[in-house]
Amino acid sequence: MFCFLDEAPVIFRDATPLIMGMDTTKNPMLTENQVTYSSESTLSSPTTLLRRRASLLDRFLVFCLPGNLQDLPAIFDAHFVLVLYKKNMNGKESEIEKLKWVQKFYTRIFELENEQKRHSLPVASSPDALLISGAIALPSSLKIDPLKLLSFGLTNSLRIPAFSAFLQCNMDKKIIITIDGWSSCGKSTLAKQLARELGYVYIDSGAMYRSITLYFLRNHVDWTNPEAVHEALGHIKLQFHANHKNGQSEIFLNDENVEYVIRDLVVAEKVSEVAAIREVREYAVKQQQEMGRKKGIVMDGRDIGTVVFPDAELKIFMTADNAIRVQRRFKELYEKNPNVTIEEVRANLEMRDYIDSHREVSPLRQAEDALVLDNSHLTIRQQLDIALGWVKERL
Ligand SMILES: Nc1ncnc2c1ncn2[C@@H]1O[C@H](COP(=O)(O)OP(=O)(O)OP(=O)(O)O)[C@@H](O)[C@H]1O
Ligand SMILES: Nc1ccn([C@@H]2O[C@H](COP(=O)(O)O)[C@@H](O)[C@H]2O)c(=O)n1
């Protein structure tokens, strides 16, 4: 993949370019060996330089950076300006488009800033440092040892801007990502992160079945009676709304935010029974398919790759050792309620997995074309990196 810049904005023309090439065909988690860089001071225009190197750097992402290493972190993001100018705006951006884009860019800058803080690197605290208008806004106050910064950039931080730039260049193409698998193996954790990284919508299909179960429990619906189920479904409205405080999408049952209450074991005890009812599934699947009509969606559940989106571009089947899944869920529930026991959690997981994989309608199973992700011994970061690699192959 190669992002070509026909016309570098004026701000970059006089800069001494530093060219970085990254093999994007490899795992996006770049190591120092996968990154090559060279400083070229003889050429006056980065555009010329990129053209000259285009053949060499085919399949590579190219960053064109003004040469002042001290400003490297800001410039990492500044180069997106270049890439996006050409690729997304096609040189015709209106002021409004530019503004919209700037807002998105701010989010990226904040993420990068947090990343730097996590690595105990100093960050410019002045609001000016977050301005994104490329070289114009480089924070003059940023004083970081260039060598430290470079190694930081290569080993930790670079992967993020590299991937973002890749995505931005392939923004036009949106795909559907499905994540199915056993209870508590990390599906929603991965799905949320993928959606955030890709700017996609995240839908937790399990939350829909949990909300229906909550409604049935609260209203004493006899779900063994098909007529009662039919009648009750007619009174249920499910919606997902973004919570701007935590950036998460949350489920609303008849206009009430039930995101928290549906995670209770009381609901978990009954949800698999309710989710096995044919009419309940038809009700939920219809809405899920509608949500994916425009693509650009990550949905997790049990039948998403097999029934809801059988033609999805990327299907992931997640799994992890039973004991590890029980431990993870126990830790999570114990923080909310110290009365919960590990035996209760284990019994619930085993019971749900059994019902989910043995029911007649849409049982949990791995789609033939799904990629298996066993995260028993992966960190949350590692599982995201693997999945991002798969996304990249499909864009
Ligand atoms: N790779 C990982 N390493 C350690 N903990 C993880 C990992 N992935 C997820 N977790 C943790 O495991 C717990 C279960 O994760 P999550 O809720 O994402 O699972 P899930 O598959 O969506 O569960 P459910 O099927 O019940 O919806 C959470 O506390 C989450 O933080
Ligand atoms: N596509 C789906 C999603 C979920 N279920 C059922 O809901 C239960 C809760 O789901 P979580 O993802 O929140 O754990 C789950 O155990 C299934 O019974 C489903 O059937 N299909």
TrEMBL record:
User: Which GO terms fall under molecular function for this chain's record?
Assistant: ATP binding; CMP kinase activity; dCMP kinase activity
Q: What are the binding positions for ATP in this chain?
A: 181-189
> Could you state one GO cellular component term attached to this entry?
cytosol
CDD domains on file: CMPK (cd02020)
- Is Flavoprotein among this UniProt entry's keywords? no
- Its main subcellular localisation, reduced to a broad class, is cytoplasm
**Entry-linked InterPro entries:** Cytidylate_kin, Cytidylate_kinase_dom, P-loop_NTPase
Q: Where in the cell is it found?
A: Cytoplasm
* EC number(s) stated in the UniProt entry for this protein: 2.7.4.25
- The entry's protein name is Cytidylate kinase
